[in-house]
Structure formats: C-alpha cells, structure tokens
Write a structure and sequence with these properties.
17 helices; globular; UDP-N-acetylmuramoyl-L-alanine:D-glutamate ligase; alpha/beta
Length: 433
C-alpha cells in the first residue's frame, strides 16, 4: 500500500495506532513490529478480533484478510507514515539529544512552553527509531509546538531520527562518555550527537546552544544560534546558587544582563547543580517563543521530577536522592561532586555499574572509586559485577545482594545518593531504605 493511502486510513482512524495488542482500542491501527523475542505478525489476528480496524503486517504467509495491510517492512512503514504526517504539520518541532540531561531538559521545556501553547512532547523514554515515529503520530492539528527527544547509542542514528522528525530547532545538552561501546569512543559520541546540528544546517534551522560548552560551541559554529550561559553577551544569561542541594538559578535576557547581579533565585525541585544548565535551556527556549518571564519562572519552579532522575524522596528512615535511571562517567562524577559540595548531613552513596562503556569500562569505574577516596566519601556501597570485580569491600555483584545486606544492616537518618545504570536495578535497594 502506498503511503498516501495508509495516511488516509490513519486519519480516518483518528490517529489511533498501537504496536501492543495489550493496548488495542476500537478502530485503531495495529503495527506488527518484530523484536528479538517476538513477532508482531503472530498477533495480527488477535488485534483485529479485539477491535483494531487494520493490522499492518509484513509476513506474506498470513492469509489474505480485508483488515490486513501488507507492507514490505512494518517498521519502515511506521517511520514513513510518521515522516509523511510530520510534513503535514505546520508547527515548530524542537529536537533534543545529548549524553546527559536530555529527558529532564525536554520535560522542563514542555512545562515552560505549555504555559502558553498546546505542546506535544516525547512521553517517557520513547526516543528511539520506534519511539520517535510513535510520538510524531500523536501530534494533532490542535498542537502548536512539539518537543521530540532523540536517543542514540551509535553513529547515524540521530541523523536517521532527524530525517523522520525533520526538526526546525535543535538542542544538544552535552557530549559525554555515554554509550562509548556503540559510538566507538568519545570522538564517536561527538560525531554521532552532532548529526543534529548538521541536519539543521540543511534546512537553515536554529540551535539553542549552551555557549559555555566549548565542544558544542565549536560544533555549532556554522549554525544559526540562540545562546544561553554565563557570558553577558549571550541571549540568555544565568547564574546559580552552588551551595544549595536543589538547583537555584536566576536569568535575564542580554539587554537586562546588568540586573542579574541582584536578581532573586528561582528555587526548583531538581537535585544537583548539573541540572542548572537544563533549567537555563528551558528558560532560553521559552523566552525565544515569547513565553512571559513570570510564566517561565513559575513553570521551572513548579516542575517536579518523578522518573528517578534528580528526584528527592523522603522515607521513614532516610532522605534519598534518586538518580538511577541512567549513568555514565560524566553524570556519575557530576553527581558525586555535587553531593560532596552540599550541606546534607550524614551522607551515604549507593552507586551502580555504568553500562555500555566498552573497552573503557574498567578504567572509568576505577576512576569513580578513586574519586570517592579523594573526596573522603567513605560511607558508600557499590553494586554491580564491574564495581565488585574491582573492589571486594563495600561492594555487591547484584542489587539483590545489596538488598539483603541492607536488610540485615538497616540504614537510618542519612542522606543517600543512589546513582547507577538502569540495568543494575537499584530500585530493589531503595526498598530497604
């Protein structure tokens, strides 16, 4: 079936699509995607029985059925449909990527823009070759602006996502030591993430640039730019309170930079000074799209993380800083340094392995242990096979082992930073705290 005919069915089905038979609703379109452990074609009949109008399939052995739409490749069809839909939209689309902070920045930008515009944005972590098309296909004629998160773990992936989403604006939060294995080292990360800037050059798009970041500034030197950072010549100039557990910032436009010295701080619900740049980016985007200053500040102040990213949780026994959705050397070091600098009483750290670092893995984990020793942060537990292979004391190969230790040795009245890669399952440890 050609893309225009498929798009007509998509519109007639009120943009109601799913890739999961557990989420079938009446008159939806089911896309039979394949994965390592499943084949969506096997569930096409079930989808129709449960109310789907059509099933997009690519298994030619399936019987002919008026409700089946046969394509060469279901994933490719989904991506083509999303791109065709994008071309029908006449709204600004902001693409955002980066090694650290892209999800938090996306949510902050959404919070700010939503005070003035009907804004659609990536839900959760649907930021890959499937999630980006699914997000685009949720944009309706009522939406006025969209914020699309783009994740990647190898080169050419951001470029591919850009060609689907066709962003008009772009943000790279930073470039760090994330997914080194897939990207082929830090230079590979730089090359892969900068594909967003390169794409924007092809359509005369605009970059929201953290001007203090020399790597990003160099990569974006040929792009149209809106800048934010500490320099009074940037479009948005900011400052932060470095002594607070929560991010506190103030910002002004370039024309009012002289007022910044005496400006009051905005108090946020985000833990960690490393989130300062994320909040300043949101202020910059909001200001560019003419959101009033009071609304920007209110949105930033009211935003509360709930996704185990820079999240504070008070239990009956302890104060927890939950930041274990993801981890890489840069974000881990930043979290440890920030934790060291805060005035929190009775500090403790529970750190999990950082995954997908390839040949650099042992070196980077050893560097984290060295940092703990240098800062004399002696109250800590390490969780995961990599950390435990480097140090026997205060370490556990699995979260279950750490859980059992903490059950037998309860921790009370402490402020605890919990940071690690999602695959280590540190949420199991949290249950004991």
């Amino acid at each position: 079936m050609d893309i225009i005919s498929l798009y007509t069915k998509f519109v007639n089905c009120k943009q109601n699509i799913t890739t999961d038979t557990r989420k079938i609703t009446k008159d939806c379109i089911y896309f039979a995607l394949k994965g390592e452990r499943f084949n969506g074609n096997d569930f096409a009949e079930q989808a129709i029985k449960e109310g789907a109008s059509y099933a997009i399939v690519d298994d030619i052995s399936l019987p002919k059925n008026d409700h089946y739409i046969f394509v060469e490749d279901v994933l490719n069809a989904l991506q083509q449909l999303a791109n065709y839909h994008r071309k029908q939209l006449h709204i600004p689309v902001i693409g955002i990527t980066g090694s650290n902070g892209k999800t938090t920045t996306k949510e902050l930008i959404h919070a700010v823009l939503s005070t003035k515009y009907n804004t659609q944005y990536t839900q959760g972590n649907l930021n890959n070759h499937i999630g980006v098309p699914l997000t685009l296909l949720t944009i309706t004629p009522q939406h006025q602006i969209a914020v699309i998160e783009m994740g990647a773990n190898h080169q050419q992936e951001i470029d591919m996502l850009c060609r689907i989403a066709e962003p008009d604006f772009g943000i790279i939060t930073n470039i760090g030591k994330a997914h080194l294995e897939g990207f082929g080292g830090i230079e590979g990360v730089k090359k892969g993430k900068s594909e967003l800037y390169k794409y924007l050059l092809t359509k005369n798009g605009t970059v929201f640039l953290h001007g203090d970041d020399e790597v990003l500034a160099d990569l974006a030197k040929e792009n149209n730019k809106v800048t934010y950072g500490t320099n009074k010549l940037y479009d948005i100039v900011g400052k932060c309170n470095k002594n607070s557990l929560f991010v506190e910032l103030a910002w002004r436009t370039r024309s009012k930079a002289s007022e910044l010295k005496n400006a009051d701080y905005i108090k946020t619900n985000l833990v960690g000074i490393y989130n300062y740049n994320n909040t300043l980016c949101a202020a910059c985007v909001g200001n560019y799209f003419k959101v009033e200053e009071d609304l920007i500040n209110q949105a930033i102040q009211n935003y509360t993380p709930n996704n185990n990213r820079s999240q504070l949780k008070q239990t009956n026994n302890n104060t927890l800083i939950l930041d274990y959705y993801n981890a890489n050397p840069n974000s881990m070091q930043a979290a440890i340094n920030n934790f060291y600098d805060t005035d929190a009483p009775a500090k403790m750290l529970i750190l999990g392995d950082m995954l997908e670092l390839g040949a650099e893995s042992m070196t980077e984990h050893q560097a984290i242990i060295a940092l703990l020793n240098k800062k004399q942060l002696n109250d800590y537990l390490l969780v995961g096979p990599i950390f435990s292979s480097l140090q026997k004391e205060k370490s556990f190969a699995t979260a279950k082992q750490a859980f059992e230790f903490l059950q037998a040795n309860p921790v009370k009245n402490k402020t605890i930073l919990i940071k690690g890669s999602r695959g280590i399952a540190l949420e199991e440890v949290v249950k004991t705290l």
